[in-house]
Each structure stands twice: as C-alpha cells, then as structure tokens.
Inverse folding.
C-alpha cells in the first residue's frame, strides 16, 4: 500500500532519435465522438522532430480534444498513436509522461499556495531514503534550466503571487524537469500580455534548439505566422490542411480556418436603426481569476431596430463585458446608460443598479452559461419560466405565488417555442436536453418584450430548425424596434444575423463592421488580432446632455458637436484655452476625427477604415496605461 | 443530463416506473437508512449479549406501543424536536447547515422562560417571545456568513455555548427564578397561565398539551411558505443555484440572513414548547450549563431523515422520538442509549443520500436475483457521456 | 480540577495555572493538527469531537482493564498507559474510516457524515461504560488512580512552582506523546514528500491527478491521521480534566476546529492559537481559586460579577470575534469539501 505514496513519474524512456521514423509523434486516423457531436473525425497528424507545429481552428474545431487524446486524458474511438515509430497506448497522463509527452493546459495545473520550486518537483521530488524532501539537490539543476532558457522565474515565490507569464514558465519547467521532449501547449498566449507573448515565442525557439518538439493550439494567426514551422488547420473536427508556414499567409490561413461555405441564410428586411437604446462608455472590468483587466475602456452604442453583435474568439473579454452590463459582475469603472422608453423619461444610468433593477429597467439576458446562470436545474420548467418575474403580477400577489398563472404562462411559451420535455411545464429542467433548455431560456427572455435584449450564444446546442426559428424571433424583436446586443462565437451567425459587428480582441473593440460589406476572411483577421481599425471616439454622454432632452438621442448629440461647446475631458490645455477664449477657439480644435464623426453621423452604415494597424486612439479620452 | 425526461429505462415494467418517481425514491432512501440503522443496532446488541439480544430488540420495538400513555408521550414529546427539525430543514433548503439548533432552542427557551416566570405572561405571548429569542440567536451565524464569510457551522456551535452561559447568567442573576443552584423554579407554580393548555387532550394523557398540534400547524405553514410564497421561491433558488438566483435578481445576502433568522425562530419556538410543557413546568428546569440540549442535534436527524421536507419532518420527528423513547424498553442488559446509535447510523446514511438514490434508481423494480441470470442493463442516461459532455459554455470539450 | 491545600502560595497558583494552560492547550493542538491534516488532504472533518470521545473511551477502558495487573505489580503504570494511549489513537483512526470511506467513494456530504459520527460516538461510549461497569448502566468510566503520575515519581517534592506545574504537565503521559507528535507531524507536513503531496490533493486535486498522484489514497491518509491524533487528543483531555470520564468533551473538538481556522491551517500558528484559547479557558476554570488567593493581581482578574461564567464563555466569544476577522482572507485548502471526481477533466 505504501507504494501509492512513493510513486515518481518522469520520462523513463529518453526519446532517442530513431532514424527509421522521421516523425516523433504520429496520430493516425484519430476519431472521437461525444454524445451529439463528432469532435475528431479521422484526423491524421504527423509531428516532425524538433519542429514547432501549430494547431489552428476556431471554437469547436476539435483541437483541444485531439491534444487531450495525445496526453492521455481521453482515449480515441478509432485510430492509433505512434511515438518514435513505436505504437503507443496512452491511457493516462502517466503513460504520456513516461513517453516524454507533456502538456500545459489552458487552465494551469499548479498549486497556488506552493512556491515555484515546489510545483516543479511535485510528483518527482528529490528525497532521501525516509522520504524527507531535499529540494537543494535539484535546485541547481532547475536554476540552470531557467538560465539556459532565459526564464526569469523566482523559484521561491508562491505561484499565486506570480504574474501569469511566470506561472506558465513554471509549467514549462515542470515538463523540462521531467525530461519531456514533446511539449504540448493549449492556447498558451490566451492569458499573456504582449511582452510575455514575445518571451514565450523566444522560449519556443530556444526549446526547439535543444531538440524538443513543440505543438501548440492557437487561434491567433499572427503568432502562428511568427513562430511556427508548420501548421495544421482543423475545421469541424476534420483536418483541412497541414502546410508550411513559409508557404502561406494570414489570408489563406483565415480562409482555411473559417471555410467558404455559408450555410445559413437569415431572411430579414434591411436594417433601419433608430435611436440609441444603450450607451456604454469607458467600461473597464478587472478579472481576479485572470489577474488582469479583461475589458479595457470599451465604449459603444446599441440602437433600436439594429442587431449589434460582439464578435471575437472566446476569451477576449466578451463574457466579462456582458456580465458587467447585466450586473452579474461588478465593473471596475465606466458608465452604462439605457434609454427610458417612456416618452421624455430620463435615461437610466445602469452601472450602479443591481441585477433586479436592471431586469426591471428593461434588460433581458440570454446567458452564455445556461446551467450556471440561466436555469435552476432542480426547479420545474414553469418556475424557471418566471425566474426573473416570479414576484410580479400576475405570477404572484402580495407574496403569494399563483401557480395557475405561472403554469399557463409556461404552457404558452412551451407551445410557442417548441420546448420539449417529458412532463411539460412540470418537468424538472435537469432532465431536459440541452437544446430544449436553451429554447426555454430564449422563449422566456424574448417574451419579456424588453427594450434591450442581450443574447449570448442564443442558438448553442440547437438543431437547424430551432436555430432558424430563434433567428426569426430575434429579427422580429429587432423589427419591433428593440435593441439587440448579440454575442456569438458562430461566425455564420455573426455574419448573417447581425446588422453590425463589433469585434473584440484582448479586451478592446478593434473593429466596427457592416457584415454586408466585409468578407468572412476579413472578419477572421480582425478576430485574431491581425488587423485593427481606428475607431472614432464616441461622444461623452454627459457632455451631450441638454436639460429636458434624453442624452441618447443621436440627432441631438450630432447637433451639439456640430455647433457648440464640446468639452473633451483629456486635453487639459485645450480645456484651459476654452475657458479663456470660448467659442471661436473651439471651432479650430476640431480634429480629423471630429470631421470623421460628422461623416459617420450622416452615413451610419459606412465607416472609413484606416488601415494603420496597432495604432489605437483612446476612446472617451481618458489616458490609461 | 440525459435526453429523456423519464429516467426509467425504456420498455421496462410499470414497477420500475414506479420506482423512478421522485417521491418514491425519497421515501425509499429514508426507509433504507432506517432499516440499516435498526440492523446495526441489532448487531450491536448481539455483540454485547447474544442471548438477551433478540428479546430485548423485540421489546424495544414494541415499547412505544405498550399503552396509550406511552403513545401519547411520544406525540407530545416530539413537538420540540419537530420544531428543531423544521429549523434545520428550512436552513438546508436555503443551502446552509444550521447546526446551531440547540443554541437557538435555548435562546427561545430563555426568552419564554423569562416571560413566563418573571413577567407572568400567558403562553401565546411566551411563544412569541421565544420566536424572537430564537431569531436573534439564529441571525448571527447568518449575518456573519453573509458579510464576513464566516463558516456557519463554527459560528453556530460557538453560539450554542454562548447562549448556554447567557441563560445560566440570566437565571442566576434573578433570585425569583432560581431556587437552587442548578434548577429553576417551577413555571406552573409561578404562572400557570404560561403552561401550555391541554384543551381536552388530557383525557388521553395528562401531559398531552397542544404543543404537538402547534408544531404540526407550524410544519404546514413552513411547507406553505416554501412552496407557495415568493420568499420560499427565493430561498429554494438560492439553495439550489446561487448564481442563477443572482441572475434572477435575488439578493443573496438578504436571503442567507433571512434563512438563518427564520430557522432560529423555529428552533426557538421548539424551546418554548418544551419549557412550557407541564412535565418541564412542573419540575423546573435543569440549567447545568455544561451541557447542550440534545434536542438541537436531534433536529438534524429529523430533518435529514425527512429529506428536508417540512411535512415529512412530522413523521420523522415521531419516529425518532419513538426510537429514543424505546430505549427504556431494552431491559437491564443494555444501555438505554442504543437508539442514539441507530439514529447516528441513519444520519450517516443521509450523508450519501445521492448515492443511495442512484442505487435505488439502478436496481429498483427488478428483483435482485434476476440480475444473476440476466446481463445487467446498461445504466440509464449514459453515466459515461455526461462527464465528457460540455456542461458550461466555457468548457467546450468539442474544441 | 485540582483541589488545593490550605497553605497555597502565589507561586503555587502560578504553577497550577500555567500547568493547566499547557494541559488544556495540548489536546487542542493535537486535535487541531488532526483537523489540519484532514483538511489539507481535502476532507472537512468535523467529527473530531466524536473521535475524541471514542479515544477517551478506549484509553479509559483499557486502563481499567490493566488496573488489576498494575496493582499486582506485573506491569508498570507508564507502560499500561502507553498501551492505552496508543490504542486510543488507533481506535480513533479506525473510526475515522467511516468518514473517509463515505467521502471518497460515496460522494458524501462531509459535514453531515461528520455530524453522524458525532451523534454515534456518545452512544458507543455509553455501551463501553456500561460494559465496564458489569452491565450496570453508567454514564462514566472511572480512571484508575495510577493513570496520572505524581510529582514524586520524578523526584519533585515540596510545595513549589515546579511541583504544581508538573502535576498537570509531565505527570500526564499524553504530554510526552504531544512533545514528540507535535514537532513530528509538523515536520511531516512541511518537509517530506508525503506532506507535500498530501497538501496538493487538498488544494488542486486535478493537478495532483495529472501528475500521477492517487488522490483517494492521500485523502484516506489525511483522515486516518486526523483520527489518530484526535483519539490521543481525547485521552489527553480527559487525563487533564477529571477522573471520571464522561462521553462528552465539552465542545473541545469544535474549539480545535476554530483553533485550526484561527491558525490559518498553519502548524506553528495553531500552537499559538491553542495557547491563546487555553489561557482564557483556564482563567474560567480557576476563578474560585484565583479569587481565594492572596495575590492581588490574580484576585483582581476574577473579582467582577459573573467572572466565572464570563471566563468560561470567553474562549467561545473570542473564537467568534477571531473568525470574523480571519475568515475573509482565509487560506483554507482550496479544494476541501468537494468530492474528487476522477472523470471530471479540466
């Protein structure tokens, strides 16, 4: 029994160069299915010794599954894996480690309260005969590794105090300490700052010089072009192509990644946007889990009668943005205004409102994570149908719940949205399929007929018929002059359903696009950070305020800019000058971006694209680091 | 997350469908724990004294039914633990473990006692005072959890001891209440109007007060609150899924505090029902402050056996009281506290009730012996698949 | 409680006082260490109270059985006690298997399982105490007189500080156990491979599993160690308190959990926290003695109304206050209380 506590797992076979096989890892005809989806469909992948190989694909392409199979977390339904020419049976991470394969997951496998050194040696500790730790024995060895690869890792710092880049290096050192030769990285740059990304890319090159092989999953085209030797593109579980990076470019990769087929067509009238219904200014959200600001000074407007879509690869801040808008998480700073649809009503400032107040003010939210936020799984369906409204008439009266009213309301929505369940309104939601759960949530939120609808991944898990129905309902809401803010990771949905696309990359809005005027490939470029748009600053909401009028009235705001005083916050000198000599000077202060704004106001659907990548004008004016 | 609403295997008999009904599974899992508990008790008896064991066990089972006095005793003595059981059940519905039932019970008893003995108030007012007393004691763990993230189990246990001492101090400081060191005056002597009336029940047994009736009514009220009111909706939502409750606009902090306060109030009433009982009122109260009244912990057993269902608590309180009372029927060869062991085993089983339920769902409806001859049917719902299937938007396994 | 003779000098009172503080701190530290090991492996163990009772029962029953032999001289008292104490630790370890089995394999709610053990323990004690008393139902087991030593055994005579100090410390055999176990357990937790791996299982079991560690094994180990320590802690408590052992350890098991949280799950800080609580508890226990003494300082400490009760309650009140301040930034093992599901991959 004691052997359970004495195990030491490290690479037991050095991956010697085997002349008979040019490939250090071969995955042949790997297939893996999960209920309802074929994640990997006959994938074959060859890894050359000493190369940096990238695995590219959008969400749902099957990249993580494939790597998990290689690392022993899943076993494939079909196919074989060969390591160094020998057939390998990888049933668990231990087997993979013994073969010299190591993996750095997207969510690090580190013990936060341990030091860097302790994390590295855990599982393969240097001990004497009775099991006492002697970290000094291997400290020198690890320090040499650090120096060799130029890792600036403080071995005595607790992981929870380390910046994310250093944490990642600890993960790499874990593998190097175990003499791993094949290093797999799952989206390694997702959580890094630009400087840390450069350091990591350099580390890759150093590791490869030592004879290691690197395989990394990414959706960021620039990084792949910058550091990889070869890239394999996956789409919908299949390999599209494996190609030398030298022989390709970002456009081609983007095309391979997203494909040319557009299967989805949404019937809709041309968009006639009306007044602004939602204004977001300088929203900043800090994530404790990721130790960094994930939404950086985001400003945008959503208009009635228009479907605005926040697009981007998952993990670029969209989720946190939505949570801040709906009140589920607190924003660090920024303002959110909602138009009060009552005539001449004052606009509602949402940012200090509770979730319930925002619900009552007129915000409906189809959440991205339906099990966590959207439903109480152990409640019955009818209770979930009134989750936000149970306390309002007619569902409840002086604190007493009216089951009858809830039941008939629930029946109505079930009927309308084709929500299928074993016992109708009284089914326990946990027993329903994911697709039907989603339809219930969508029905609930759409039926609330709120002025603003925030829909995150509304058609996830649905079949084609249901998707079409939901899309039609969303378009109908838009035609009824509601404002729709869509968050979607499905590019087809983004291109076809939305009237306007705001691309988010690394916490900032980097593009404002008309889906009718761009191609899918171009969208891919913006989403992966290869391209960037210079966006005009939006008017500060307070400064457009004139007593009696609503602040969100575009026409009024435009009038203001054209004629009178526009106090821009940042330029202090300008402000001073403005105080000294008011009107005439102000006219001269107008810059190119003001002029651009005027053009924009006239033609809301046309945006001039300035193709100067990487230069970002600060929106709203506040100077942030 | 299966694709069918009904977890019963397709094509199986009506018997197995019956076994898949939620309430059947609930009752069955409670029965299983009771049977195993009794079995363990019997085995322990056999280990101590093999010859006398079977007879003693049988007499223990029968003891509660020997005469109408013992039956009545069980009914009216179960009122306090029914209340503490409701308290624990309510807190569980809200997602918290209220282990402070004893302290809240004492708090309520103190308030009721002071009201009865010192201020000479009639019994309805005393019960109201007890409600307030229990609520005050109960809200503290709630407030500490909501605002300071203090573990509610520990804070409730500390409160148990603190209230104990406070009760002692209160009694000690007022010579009108205290007769001798360690015992209080008899409520019935000072203030007969505070003693719970019997309203005709004394025909069955002179001690049979309406306490049990009050407790049953309160159980029904608690059930109504949980099922039919906004408050109940919010409490249950918070208990089942904090995040979805947040999404629904429910205030989490307010809910925790309210849950503990109501829970404490219920336990406090339990204290009043005990202290104003003729039996206690006639003999005074033992306030040796080194002990915590066991009724607090019995409440945990009551709630868990009833699967936190308020109406179920009525039955489980009767059963546990019956079990405790039956200890005396064991005869001289065995200690009278064997039932406590049985109750402990029952609670132990309640700790892994999910596992027991899974077993019932898997094997219910088909006689065991058939398994040995037929191949075991594949587990329903696909036990392998759900673990791999994406459950959240983030962990998209199909990447 | 120690009864003092009529000629009591202040130094003797100090001796008794400090001795009692140590005597009370030792079970607290031992049991808190038990809780620490268990929670560091990932399992919340509130059954410590019940396990202490089982430990106390075991050691008192076994010493009771040795009574005849000791009186006949066939076995030394210290050896008999040694066996009794080890047995109490083993009994505690065995009893804790209920918790670890249910938590690991039945996905039990650990708090409820622990509570079940706390409910069962006093009943089991009563079975034991009745059996010891030849089937006469009794609530207590009397410890034989030789279970604690006399200072003269160590050559300390006369009325002095050392004498009264030693009565509650070195005259109780569990103190020696504590002197060995406490540093040993701390060393094991922080300086051995076993301790490092154990702690990882309670912080991030998925990471540990990905490194090839058997999380279930480490959780069994953590809970078993906590059972062993709590069993000995129970014996230490009853040896220091009374000669009649009841199936009730007055909430010390829960107090030890508070000590563990106050000590932020850290072995050294726990020692400090334990002495902190022991100090106040002893003040409460000794109120009458202190009040009757000639020392003005000691008298003043206890000369306000209801001093006895307030001091008795002080550990619990202080615990509450301390919890308020320490809970926000607690360094609780991150994955404690959650059953480890090997199929849940990140």
């Amino acid at each position: 029994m004691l052997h359970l506590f004495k195990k030491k797992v490290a690479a037991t076979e050095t991956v010697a160069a085997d002349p008979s096989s040019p490939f250090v890892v071969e995955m042949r005809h790997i297939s893996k299915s999960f209920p309802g989806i074929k994640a990997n469909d006959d994938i074959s992948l060859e890894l050359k010794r000493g190369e940096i190989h990238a695995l590219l694909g959008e969400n749902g392409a099957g990249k993580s599954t494939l790597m998990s199979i290689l690392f022993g977390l899943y076993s494939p339904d079909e196919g074989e894996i060969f390591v160094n020419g020998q057939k390998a049976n990888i049933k668990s991470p231990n087997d993979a480690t013994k073969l010299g394969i190591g993996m750095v997951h997207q969510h690090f496998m580190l013990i936060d309260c341990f030091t860097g050194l302790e994390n590295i040696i855990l599982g393969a500790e240097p001990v004497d005969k009775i099991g006492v730790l002697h970290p000094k024995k291997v400290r020198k060895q690890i320090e040499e590794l650090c120096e060799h690869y130029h890792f600036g890792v403080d071995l005595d710092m607790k992981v929870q105090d380390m910046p994310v880049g250093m944490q990642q290096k600890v993960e790499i050192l874990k593998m190097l300490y175990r003499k791993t030769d094949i290093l797999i990285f799952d989206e390694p740059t997702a959580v890094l700052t630009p400087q840390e990304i450069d350091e990591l890319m350099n580390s890759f090159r150093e590791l490869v010089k030592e004879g290691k092989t690197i395989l990394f999953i990414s959706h960021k085209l620039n990084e792949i072009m910058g550091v990889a030797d070869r890239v394999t593109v996956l789409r919908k579980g299949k390999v599209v192509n494996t190609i030398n990076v030298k022989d390709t470019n970002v456009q081609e990769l983007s095309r391979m990644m997203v494909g040319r087929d557009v299967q989805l067509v949404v019937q809709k009238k041309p968009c006639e946007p009306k007044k602004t219904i939602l204004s977001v200014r300088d929203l900043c959200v800090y994530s404790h889990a990721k130790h960094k600001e994930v939404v950086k000074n985001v400003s945008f407007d959503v208009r009635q009668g228009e479907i605005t879509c926040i697009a981007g690869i998952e993990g670029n801040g969209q989720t946190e943005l939505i949570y801040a808008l709906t009140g589920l998480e607190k924003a660090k700073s920024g303002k959110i205004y909602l138009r009060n649809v009552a005539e001449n009503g004052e606009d509602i400032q949402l940012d200090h409102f509770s979730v319930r107040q925002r619900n009552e003010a007129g915000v409906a939210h189809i959440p991205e994570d339906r099990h966590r936020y959207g439903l109480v799984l152990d409640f019955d369906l009818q209770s979930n149908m009134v989750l936000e409204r149970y306390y309002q008439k007619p569902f409840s009266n002086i604190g007493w719940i009216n089951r009858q009213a809830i039941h008939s309301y629930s029946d109505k929505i079930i009927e309308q949205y084709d929500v299928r369940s074993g016992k109708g309104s009284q089914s326990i939601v946990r027993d329903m399929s994911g697709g039907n759960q989603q339809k219930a949530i969508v029905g609930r939120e759409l039926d609330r007929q709120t002025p603003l609808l925030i829909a995150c991944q509304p058609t996830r898990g649905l079949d084609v018929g249901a998707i079409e129905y939901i899309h039609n309902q969303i378009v109908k809401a838009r035609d009824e002059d509601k404002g729709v803010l869509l968050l979607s990771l499905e590019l087809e949905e983004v291109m076809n359903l939305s009237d306007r696309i705001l691309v988010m990359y690394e916490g900032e809005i980097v593009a404002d696009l008309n889906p009718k005027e761009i191609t899918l490939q171009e969208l891919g470029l913006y989403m992966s950070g290869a391209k960037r748009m210079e966006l005009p600053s939006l008017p500060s909401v307070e400064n457009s305020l004139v007593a009696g009028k609503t602040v969100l009235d575009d026409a009024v705001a435009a009038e203001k800019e054209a004629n009178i005083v526009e106090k821009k916050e940042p330029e202090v000198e300008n402000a001073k000058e403005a105080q000294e000599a008011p009107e005439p000077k102000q006219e001269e202060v107008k810059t190119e971006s003001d002029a651009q704004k005027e053009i924009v106001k006239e033609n809301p659907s046309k945006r001039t694209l300035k193709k100067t990548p990487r230069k970002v004008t600060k929106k709203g004016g506040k100077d942030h680091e | 997350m299966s694709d069918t609403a009904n977890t019963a295997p397709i094509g199986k008999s009506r018997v197995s469908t019956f076994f898949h009904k939620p309430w059947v599974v609930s009752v069955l899992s409670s029965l299983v724990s009771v049977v195993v508990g009794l079995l363990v008790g019997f085995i322990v008896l056999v280990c101590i004294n093999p010859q006398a064991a079977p007879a003693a066990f049988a007499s223990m089972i029968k003891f509660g039914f020997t005469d109408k006095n013992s039956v009545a005793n069980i009914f009216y003595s179960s009122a306090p633990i029914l209340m503490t059981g409701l308290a624990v059940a309510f807190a569980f519905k809200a997602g918290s473990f209220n282990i402070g039932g004893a302290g809240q019970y004492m708090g309520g008893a103190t308030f009721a006692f002071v009201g009865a003995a010192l201020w000479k108030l009639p019994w309805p007012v005393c019960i109201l005072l007890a409600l307030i007393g229990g609520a005050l004691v109960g809200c503290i763990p709630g407030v500490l959890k909501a605002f300071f993230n203090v573990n509610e189990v520990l804070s409730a246990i500390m409160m148990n001891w603190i209230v104990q001492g406070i009760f002692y101090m209160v009694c000690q400081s007022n010579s009108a209440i205290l007769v001798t060191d360690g015992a209080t005056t008899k409520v019935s002597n000072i203030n007969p109007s505070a003693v719970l009336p019997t309203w005709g029940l004394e025909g069955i047994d002179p001690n049979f007060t309406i306490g049990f009736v009050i407790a049953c009514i309160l159980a029904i009220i608690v059930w109504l609150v949980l099922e039919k009111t906004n408050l109940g909706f919010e409490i249950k939502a918070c208990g089942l899924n904090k995040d979805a409750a947040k999404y629904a606009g429910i205030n989490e902090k307010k809910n925790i505090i309210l849950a503990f306060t109501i829970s404490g109030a219920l336990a406090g009433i339990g204290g009043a029902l005990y202290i104003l009982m003729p039996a206690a009122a006639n003999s005074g109260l033992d306030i040796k402050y080194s002990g915590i009244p066991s009724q607090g912990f019995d409440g945990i057993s009551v709630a868990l056996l009833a699967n936190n269902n308020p109406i179920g608590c009525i039955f489980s309180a009767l059963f546990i009281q019956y079990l405790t009372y039956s200890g005396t029927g064991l005869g001289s060869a065995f200690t009278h506290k064997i039932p406590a062991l049985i109750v402990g085993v029952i609670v132990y089983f309640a700790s892994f009730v999910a596992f027991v339920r899974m077993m019932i769902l898997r094997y219910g409806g088909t006689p065991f012996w058939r398994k040995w001859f037929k191949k075991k049917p594949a587990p329903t719902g696909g036990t392998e698949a759900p673990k791999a299937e994406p459950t959240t938007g983030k962990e998209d396994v199909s990447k | 409680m120690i009864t003092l003779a009529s000629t009591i000098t202040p130094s003797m009172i100090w001796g008794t006082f400090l001795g009692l503080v140590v005597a009370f701190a030792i079970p607290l530290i031992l049991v808190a260490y038990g809780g620490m090991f268990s929670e560091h492996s990932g399992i919340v163990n509130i059954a410590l109270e019940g396990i202490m009772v089982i430990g106390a029962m075991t050691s008192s029953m076994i010493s009771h059985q040795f009574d005849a032999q000791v009186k006949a001289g066939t076995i030394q008292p210290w050896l008999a006690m040694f066996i009794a104490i080890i047995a109490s630790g083993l009994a505690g370890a065995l009893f804790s298997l209920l918790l670890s089995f249910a938590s690991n394999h039945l996905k039990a709610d650990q708090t409820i399982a622990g509570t079940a053990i706390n409910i069962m323990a006093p009943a089991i004690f009563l079975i034991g105490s009745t059996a010891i008393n030849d089937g006469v139902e009794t609530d207590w087991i009397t410890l034989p007189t030789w279970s604690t030593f006399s200072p003269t055994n160590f050559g300390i005579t006369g009325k002095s500080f050392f004498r009264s100090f030693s009565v509650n410390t070195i005259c109780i055999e569990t103190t020696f156990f504590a002197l060995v176990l406490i540093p040993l357990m701390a060393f094991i937790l922080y300086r051995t491979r076993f301790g490092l791996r154990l702690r990882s299982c309670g912080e991030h079991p998925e990471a540990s599993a990905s490194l090839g560690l058997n999380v279930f094994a480490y959780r069994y180990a953590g809970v078993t160690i906590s059972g062993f320590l709590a069993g000995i802690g129970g014996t230490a408590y009853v040896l220091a308190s009374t000669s009649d052992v009841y199936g009730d350890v007055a909430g010390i098991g829960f107090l030890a959990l508070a000590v563990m949280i106050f000590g932020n799950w850290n072995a050294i800080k726990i020692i400090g926290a334990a002495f902190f609580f022991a100090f106040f508890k002893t003040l409460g226990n000794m109120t009458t003695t202190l009040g009757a003494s000639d020392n003005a300082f000691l008298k003043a400490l206890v000369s306000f109304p209801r001093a006895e009760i307030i001091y008795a309650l002080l550990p619990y009140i202080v615990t509450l206050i301390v919890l308020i301040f320490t809970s926000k930034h607690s360094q609780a093992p991150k994955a404690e209380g959650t059953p480890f599901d090997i199929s849940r991959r990140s």
Q: What stands out?
A: The longest strand of chain A covers residues 23-34. Residues 194-209 of chain A form the longest helix (16 residues). Chain A has two domains: 3-257, 276-502.
